[in-house]
Amino acid sequence: MKPRHKRFVLVGVGVAGVALSASLVLSAFQKNLVFFYTPTQVASNEAPVGKSFRIGGLVEKGSVKREADGVSVRFVVTDTAKSIPVTYRGILPDLFREGKGVVTQGKIGPDGTFRAEEVLAKHDENYMPPAAQDALNQATAKKAAQSMAAAEGGK
After folding, report:
1. How far is the C-alpha of 82 from the C-alpha of 77, rounded, in Å?
2. For the domain that residue 80 is a member of, what is the CATH number?
3. For 71-110, how does the pLDDT look when each residue is reduced to its tens digit (9 = 90+)?
4. In total, how many domains does the chain have?
5. Cβ atoms of 15 and 35 closer than 8 Å
């Protein structure tokens, strides 16, 4: 084989190696990609079925119910417009409380209950994921507009 042909073979093997590496990295990235949805988006069936995703909002007051086994818990996540029931089996973060922000990761069940695999409580009094904060602001504004329209309609 001539040196020129050897160079072509080496360049071809190098390009194939880079392409294989890039495809493996992109495949791993795609498998680990997790999107965030609000309870309103989940209720309107915008969330993927059968795939893991995150849902965030506030833990509804009076909704936390602990099971007798000590590790299973049920609670409701709300964005003040819609609410989604959540089940979780595991140890909750120390900052998990009713009325506080939470982000859960898992899958939605056929019964509409979100089965969380991970629960993250907000770590700072002033912090909330931007998407969750926007959803809460929109839901609050929508409720205010509806109550004003109802008040004006009753006059």
Report:
1. 9
2. 2.40.50.140
3. 899 999 998 888 999 999 998 888 888 888 899 999 998 8
4. 1
5. no
